[in-house]
Specification:
- By secondary structure, the protein is of the alpha/beta class.
- The chain is built from 28 helices and ten strands.
- It has helices spanning 6-25, 31-61, 74-99, 107-137, 149-159, 181-200, 211-214, 216-220, 222-235, 238-245, 251-259, 319-322, 362-376, 395-409, 428-443, 479-490, 500-505, 507-515, 518-541, 556-561, 570-576, 582-587, 593-601, 617-626, 639-642, 679-682, 699-711, 736-753; strands at residues 266-272, 277-280, 288-291, 303-309, 345-352, 380-384, 416-426, 450-454, 688-693, 716-721.
- It has an eight-stranded mixed β-sheet with strand order 1-4-6-5-7-8-9-10, sandwiched between helices.
- The longest helix has 31 residues, at 31-61.
- The chain is elongated, with a radius of gyration of 27 Å.
- It starts with 5 loop residues before the first helix and ends in an 8-residue tail after the last helix.
- This is Hormone-sensitive lipase.
- The active site is at 427.
- Its EC number is 3.1.1.23, 3.1.1.79.
């Protein structure tokens, strides 16, 4: 299937679908046969409608590549993802055609999987139409929409109403390498369990670690899990994501992660005093410039950094450095002087971690940093910058720049002579690597010898691009979560949901407090899981009136499927694939889908001065009434102008989307969105090496940033890894593919740290 061209794949799938339709339509009026016939009719319809759109995208995708040796951009990624879905349906259709006569044929399982992937295919078809509209609207070669902000707002408002739950249930991670999928399933189960307890708690922070084990129904029912996952990503605030992402930093889990990582001689948390110091200017080392401590938002304060070194090197056990060591709690181990010391390294790596600007510390990234220290043989200093929303832009940039300059000035204490300096970071950390280097150039101090950025975010302004369309199905970087993180970093997310006691305890203190109940609750969690399973089995066994031959899996999808029969086609498909939860709609005052769709369709474009990309619930009705007279023709990027007649993708059943991201001027600041930096600023950057992911919603950030650098004559390389998700560095030990991708990052750092060869006489 991987070597099969798109047209052949589509025709083969259509032929198999028609064959299965003919077979099951001849099996009588039973419900199972009717549903199988209907689902194969839907597969045929969607495949035939999708194939021409994919061919058109493929025909122009090469125009958006960085160069012929780097065939990567959001259009290619979208086509590849659609091919993965078509390939899975083709495989399943072949299996059904070959085994439908067998007494061992699992009817309910195969039907549920076909239905789930049919919904996914329908939504992917909608994304291809959105991509086509971007293609027609953007300037030649541009991946980000650069038109009127009102049109961009309307496009995103329309896009976020699409149904997403199908991508978080049975289809979770179908586009990634198979080795990643079990991990994603574990994360999704933990996320929805964590979110359920977060929702029940008044403050949303008193969550026990045993909550990850007590909601067994999410592990049993993928449709239920997908619907709950969609609710969480759309409605829970940035504080939830901060708490969930920081789970890996509790003592138990971080200790387990470190047990599997390389053993290093030095891993010390340092607290840099908020004292100004002088740095020499690169243009004239006799002149100096004052580097002031961070001041934004919270005033002067220490900056935490972590020093990691595989060997104990000169200076790393000095009294001056020991005076900066910060205790990490009762489990921390102090470094003891050793009789033998390695000489200072010629190089130093300054690392800035990712986490959406709102979560994680160097502790989360310590496992792969230890591996880097071992393989590179150089000291690494990782910066623990302050996180949003408590410390929005530019606090993190100020702290990273201060720590970077301090490391250069005091490199002897860190076990390095500082001859070669590399800035390295991932995701949000990649963004900060670029902006720290831009700030160093603006100050006139030494810029690093090179930057290695893994899947960096270079465009924080809400602009549509083909790769950002992939956020509809990405379980690690959904658009709503990305929006909340950027809003927090931009200072738009300022609401504090914690009470005074929680403020005193702190986010990680709450997680540590609740995790102390883990051992006690493990037995209760396992019992609850078993009871949930037995209860579900009991409900199934009570349905004795259903004939044995027609026994079906009764789940969320079955509840939605039990509707009056309607003619085959898009309308029946819409009813067929309704995965919304009746219980969820009853527990929350979510408007009916038809009412929500009607209100969203009546919304016209916002004015550029007050663009609200994602409507708040209290504004939805007011704006809907104000824009009621807007015509379809004036809506530009609206669905009626994007989708062909008769095609209706699934819409979300979660109500109005809570993603308060605004088009504030700060996101256009080049120190926040380096992609928007003018040419003269980009020319100050050192050689840049970017490692991106083909299936990452941030792929276009990397492609366009590399193109900008190349246009101004700056040295840049871009390597795009296939079939891996955003954040693969944190999954480096998970499988062979992530190990190879992590090794690629190490090779790029080594390239920066290798002194250039002396010119031949």
């Amino acid at each position: 299937m991987h070597t099969m061209d798109l047209r052949t794949m589509t025709q083969t799938l259509v032929t198999l679908a028609e064959d299965n339709m003919a077979f099951f339509s001849s099996q009588g009026p039973g419900e199972t046969a009717r549903r199988l016939t209907s689902v194969f009719a839907g597969v045929r319809e969607q495949a035939l409608g999708l194939e021409p759109a994919l061919v058109r995208l493929l025909g122009v995708a090469h125009l958006f590549d960085l160069d012929p040796e780097t065939p990567a951009n959001g259009y290619r990624s979208l086509v590849h993802t659609a091919r993965c879905c078509l390939a899975h349906l083709l495989h399943k259709s072949r299996y059904v055609a070959s085994n439908r006569h067998s007494i061992f044929f699992r009817t309910s399982h195969n039907l549920a999987e076909l239905e789930a992937y049919l919904v996914a295919l329908t939504q992917l078809r909608a994304l291809t139409y959105y991509a086509q509209h971007l293609l027609a609207t953007n300037r030649p070669g541009g991946l980000f929409f650069e038109g009127d902000e009102g049109l961009t707002a309307e496009f995103l408002r329309e896009y976020v109403t699409l149904h997403k739950g199908c991508f978080y249930g049975r289809c979770l991670g179908f586009q990634f390498t198979p080795a990643i999928r079990p991990f994603l399933q574990t994360i999704s189960i933990g996320l929805v369990s964590f979110g359920e307890h977060y929702k029940r708690n008044e403050t949303g922070l008193g969550v026990t670690a045993s909550s990850l084990f007590t909601s067994g129904r999410f592990a049993i029912d993928p449709e239920l899990r997908g619907a709950e996952f969609e609710r969480i990503i759309q409605n829970l605030d940035v504080h939830f994501w901060k708490a969930f992402w920081n789970i890996t930093e509790i003592e138990v889990l971080s200790s387990l992660a470190n047990m599997a990582s390389a053993t290093v001689r030095v891993s010390r948390l340092l607290s840099l005093p908020p004292e100004a110091f002088e740095m020499p200017l690169t243009s004239d080392p006799k002149l100096t410039v004052t580097i002031s401590p961070p001041l934004a938002h919270t005033g002067p304060g220490p900056v935490l950094v972590r020093l990691i070194s595989y060997e104990l090197r000169e200076g790393q056990d000095s009294e001056e450095l020991s005076s900066l060591v910060k205790s990490e709690g009762p489990w921390s181990l102090e470094l003891r002087p050793r009789p033998q010391q390695a000489p200072r390294s010629q190089s130093l790596v300054v690392h800035i971690h990712g986490g959406g600007f709102v979560a994680q510390t160097s502790k989360s990234h310590e496992p792969y940093l230890k591996t880097w220290a071992q393989e590179l043989g150089v000291p690494i200093i990782s910066i623990d910058y302050s996180l949003a929303p408590e410390a929005p832009f530019p606090r993190a940039l100020e702290e990273c720049f201060f720590a970077y300059c301090w490391a250069i000035k005091h490199c002897a204490l860190l076990g390095s002579t500082g001859e070669r300096i590399c800035l390295a970071g991932d995701s949000a950390g990649g963004n900060l690597c670029f902006t720290v280097s831009l700030r160093a150039a603006a100050y006139g101090v030494r810029v690093p010898d090179g930057i290695m950025a893994a899947y960096p975010a270079t465009m924080l302004q809400s602009a549509a691009s083909p790769s950002r369309l992939l956020s509809l199905m990405d379980p690690l970087l959904p658009l709503s979560v990305l929006s909340k993180c950027v809003s927090a970093y931009a200072g738009a997310e300022t609401e504090d949901h914690s009470n005074s006691d929680q403020k005193a305890l702190g986010m990680m203190g709450l997680v540590r407090r609740d995790t102390s109940l883990l051992l006690r609750d493990l037995r209760l969690g396992a019992s609850s899981w078993l009871n949930s399973f037995l209860e579900l089995r009991g409900h199934k066994s009570q349905k004795t009136q259903v004939p044995v031959a027609e026994t079906m899996r009764r789940s969320v999808s079955d509840a939605a499927l039990a509707q009056p029969e309607s003619p085959l086609g898009t309308d029946s498909l819409k009813a067929l694939t309704d995965l919304s939860l009746k219980s969820s709609s009853e527990s929350s005052d979510t408007p009916k889908m038809s009412e929500m769709s009607q209100s969203l369709e009546t919304l016209g474009p916002s004015t550029p001065s007050d663009v609200n990309f994602f409507l708040r619930s209290e504004d939805a009705q007011e704006e809907a009434g104000a824009k009621e007279g807007a015509s379809t023709k004036d809506r530009g990027l609206g669905s009626r102008a994007t989708f062909p007649e008769g095609f209706h993708p699934r819409r979300s059943s979660q109500g109005v989307i809570h993603m308060p991201l605004y088009s504030v001027p700060i996101v256009k600041n080049p120190f926040m969105s380096p992609l928007l930096a003018p040419d003269h600023m980009l020319k100050t950057l050192p050689p840049v090496h970017i490692v991106a992911c083909a299936l990452d919603p941030m792929l276009d950030d990397s492609v366009m940033f590399a193109r900008r650098l190349r246009e101004v004559g700056q040295p840049v390389t871009l390597h795009v890894v296939e079939d891996l998700p955003h954040g693969f560095l944190s999954l480096a030990s998970l499988c062979r593919e992530t190990q190879q991708a992590a090794q690629l990052c190490v090779e790029r750092i080594r390239l920066i740290l290798t002194p250039p060869a002396a010119p031949q006489p």
